[in-house]
Automatic annotation (TrEMBL):
Stored PANTHER family: LIPOPOLYSACCHARIDE BIOSYNTHESIS PROTEIN WZXC (PTHR30250:SF10), PST FAMILY PREDICTED COLANIC ACID TRANSPORTER (PTHR30250)
GO cellular component: plasma membrane
Name this protein carries in UniProt: Lipopolysaccharide biosynthesis protein
Topology in membrane: Multi-pass membrane protein
Organism: Rhizobium leguminosarum bv. viciae
């Protein structure tokens, strides 16, 4: 490839197949589980997994990022990472299991004890993964990543859905997680053979880079998980279940649409971190492409959430519709500054990222608590929207500090995507109010299909018209055109011998 950015785009497209499969399985799993399980089942498991995630983040060592940035990691480095990970996960598993009964008493939910005991085994498994896997990202190797991603997701999906369909029990969520992790361990050592040995050599070297990332991870997890514990305690498992499913569905389109590019961003930025001109160019192109994909995915999800939720999940999940509408929109807008994380890591400014996370925690938690106290669950959602917009502005200002790219120049680079998605949202919203929403399943499916197709035509059409009107500037449209031309030329070359 002629540049790192080209390799990022090529890798992103290669991984698109993997993410398409994972995306489909994730969405289907959520819909199937929501159909078979009650909102309180999701709320119960959400309490346990939230505590698990917080405990994990408090002790997160961020060693994988240190390996990616290392100039030449050796087998000893990998063994040291494995040793540290296993030690940490064993201690966490014991602590989590020991706290299961007191936490169940606190939430007045006896079922939490057995759920937390099972998830303590999940914590133990998390430390046994093959540390060499991270080198696939560093070296921009994608076929092995495809095998790992798809296999573990497929096994987890089959186990989760089978248990949910047969027993209609919250254990589907727990056992599916365990199956996912076991598959990850088995496949990672099969695809990337590695025989670890116990050693603590290079531990200080690895910690020197990961210290601030670990601190940032702690703060960031508290930032994005604390409301689960508050809702579970103050509003109960049913409302927490609505919030959990609504939040999961709202993140799904943005996260899955941008995951192929996100997986290659940090290694790509790391390769050009000492060349300011190439780094700025790589950031602008990657960020514009990210927004061009994320904005229609997230905001499109928001404008069709009502018929989609009624069709896929049924009446018991109607309270989650508003959550999806609000959060899917703000998640999409947050991609305007989301690449500051890999950018700061690539430049080694992990302390700066930690300071940002700590400041957002101080701002975010009080706003959410006030929203919860005043308006209950809707108040939490409004608080999430407000703090999400604040976070976007902070990230874009931080990008300016890191590479000198002005705030309005960052915003201007996304003008066509923002204008096109606004036209799309207005058109779909207007059409949804002109058409009466049917109540039968077939009618809802047709109604949803009409809205989705209309939105796609409006977004793509307006983006193309604006690109032509602005005399074809460099941007996502240019990348798509160049990739399409390369694809056609390769197809022609492959077809020539056959015609001869």
């Amino acid at each position: 490839m002629s540049s790192v950015t080209d390799r990022l785009i090529q890798g992103s497209m290669w991984l698109s197949l993997s993410r398409a499969i994972v995306n489909g399985l994730s969405a289907l799993s959520t819909f199937v589980l929501a159909w078979y399980l009650a909102p309180s089942d999701f709320g119960l498991v959400a309490i346990a997994t939230t505590i698990q995630v917080i405990l994990s983040s408090v002790t997160e060592l961020s060693l994988n990022q240190a390996l990616i940035r290392h100039e030449d990691p050796s087998e000893v480095h990998f063994s040291a990472v494995w040793t540290l990970s296993v030690t940490r996960s064993a201690i966490l598993a014991l602590l989590f299991a020991a706290s299961s009964f007191p936490i169940a008493e606190f939430y007045n939910e006896p079922r939490l004890t057995s759920v937390m005991l099972a998830l303590s085994f999940s914590l133990l498994l998390s430390g046994l993964a093959n540390p060499r896997r991270v080198m696939l990202q560093r070296d921009l190797i994608f076929w092995q990543e495809f095998v790992l991603n798809v296999s573990q997701k497929l096994v987890g999906f089959v186990v989760t859905v089978a248990i949910a369909a047969i027993y209609q029990s919250y254990w589907a969520l727990v056992l599916g997680t365990l199956a996912y992790q076991i598959t990850n361990i088995i496949v990672s050592y099969t695809v990337l053979p590695f025989w670890p040995r116990i050693t603590f050599r290079h531990a200080r070297e690895l910690f020197s880079f990961s210290l601030w990332l670990t601190a940032g991870q702690i703060v960031n997890t508290l930032n994005w998980r604390i409301e689960y514990l508050l809702i579970g305690k103050m509003l109960g498992a049913t409302q927490l279940g609505h919030y959990t499913v609504g939040n999961t569905l709202s993140t799904l389109p943005t996260r899955e649409a941008t995951a192929p590019l996100n997986q290659t961003i940090y290694p790509g930025f790391s390769r050009v971190r000492n060349d300011p001109v190439r780094l700025i160019a790589a950031y602008q192109r990657a960020q514009a492409l990210l927004a061009a994909v994320a904005l229609p995915a997230g905001i499109g999800m928001a404008v069709v959430a009502d018929p989609m939720m009624r069709l896929a999940l049924g009446e018991k999940w109607i309270p989650a519709i508003f959550i999806v509408q609000a959060l899917a929109s703000v998640f999409a807008l947050q991609t305007l500054g989301s690449l500051v994380q890999p950018l700061g890591m690539a430049k080694g400014h992990t302390k700066l990222l930690f300071i940002r996370d700590a400041q957002m925690l101080v701002v975010r938690v009080p706003i959410i608590i006030v929203g919860l106290m005043i308006a209950g669950l809707p108040g939490v959602v409004y608080a999430r929207v407000l703090t999400g917009l604040i976070s976007t502005a902070v990230n874009m200002l931080l990008v300016k500090r890191l590479i000198g790219l002005p705030f309005f120049q960052q915003l201007g680079a996304n003008f066509r995507a923002l204008a096109s998605v606004a036209l799309m949202a207005a058109g779909v919203w207007g059409l949804s109010h002109v058409l009466n929403m049917p109540t039968d399943k077939l009618g809802l499916a047709l109604h949803l299909a009409i809205l989705v197709i209309t939105g796609g035509i409006l977004y793509v059409g307006s983006s193309f018209v604006l690109w032509l009107a602005m005399k074809k500037p460099n941007g996502p449209e240019t990348e798509v055109q160049r990739i399409f031309v390369k694809f056609l030329s390769k197809a022609k070359r492959m077809a020539l011998p056959k015609s001869a």
